[in-house]
Amino acid sequence: MVQDLVIAIVAAASVGSLYVAAAAKVVKQYERGVVLRLGRLRDDVRGPGFTMVIPGIERLRKVNMQIVTMPVPAQDGITRDNVTVRVDAVIYFKVVDAASAVIQVEDYRFAVSQMAQTSLRSIIGKSDLDDLLSNREKLNQGLELMIDSPAVGWGVQIDRVEIKDVSLPETMKRSMARQAEADRERRARVINADAELQASKKLAEAAGEMSAQPAALQLRLLQTVVAVAAEKNSTLVLPFPVELLRFLERAQQPGQQQPAPGQQQLAPAQQPASPPQSAAAKPQRQTQPQRHAQAPRPAPPQRPVQAQRPAQPRSPQPAAAAPVPMPAPPPPAAVPARPSRPKPLAKH
User: Fold this and answer.
1) What sign has the CA pseudo-torsion 63, 69, 73, 79?
2) Left if phi > 0, otherwise alpha if psi is -120 to 50, otherwise beta: which for 56?
C-alpha cells in the first residue's frame, strides 16, 4: 500500500510539473502578450515578465513592440513629366496596440510592406523629377501620411519613411549632365564678365591717378619688369609706352618733320631726275592758218619737232658744297607760220 501511495504521489508531481511547464510563459521586455481564451480576446494584455495561462484553454501570442526597419522594394514608375524612374525606400514603424495588431490584420508586417509599395508608386506618379531629386523631404512626409492613414486601425504607427535611391536612365543622366554643364558655363561667363567690368573700372581709376603723376607710369613699368624677372625666365617682355608711339606718330606727320642733328640734306643734283618726256608725246598747239582774201591754200606738211636731249646731271657734289641748280628745260620749238602770198599790184 505504501508503494502504491508513493507511485500516486510521483505521478501527481509529474502531472503538476507538466502542467506548470505548459502554463508558464515568459514575456520579454520589448514584447506584449495577447491572451485568447477559447478564441476570445482577453481584455488584459500581459506585460513583460512571468505569466501563466491555462493549457488547452488559453493561448498566448507575443507581439514585438520594437521599431521595425523594413526596406521597400524598388518600384518602377513614370513621373508627372513623363520620365521613367526606379525608386526604392525604407520605412520605420512600430506596434502601439498589440491587440489590434493581432485581431485587426492577419500579418501586419506584410500589410505595411504592401501599403508602402503602393504609396510609393502613387507618390512617383504625382511628382516631378526635380522633386524626386531635390525636394525629397516633402515627398517623405507625403509618403508617410499615405501609409500611416490605414495603418492606424492596425495598431501600427509609422515613424519615418525615407526615399533611399532614385535610378534614372542613362540618356536622362547624360541630358542632366549637359544641362548642369551649360548652367555652370553660363554662371562662369557671367562671373568673368562681372570681373572684367570691375577690373576695367579699377584700371580707369588707376589711369586717372597715373595721368596726374607721369612718373607713376614709369614706376609701374619697373614693377612689371621686376615681377616678370622673378619668374627666372629666359625671355623678358617689356611693355612699350603708348606715349612714345604717339610722339613718333606726330613726328612722322608732313610739315613737322625736321632733320635730325648731324643729318645733311641731299642736294637737288643728288635727287634722281625724272625721265624727260618727248616733245612728240605732248600735243603741240598749232597756229591758225591765215586766210587769204581770195582763196585759201592748203598748208605745207610740217616736220615733226625733235625733242632735245636733256643735259646729263653732274656728278654729286660733296655735302659741304652748295647745291648746283638744274638747267632749265628748253622752250618748245615754234611752229613756222605759213607764208602769205604777196598781193598783186594794181595796174594803173
Assistant:
1) positive
2) left
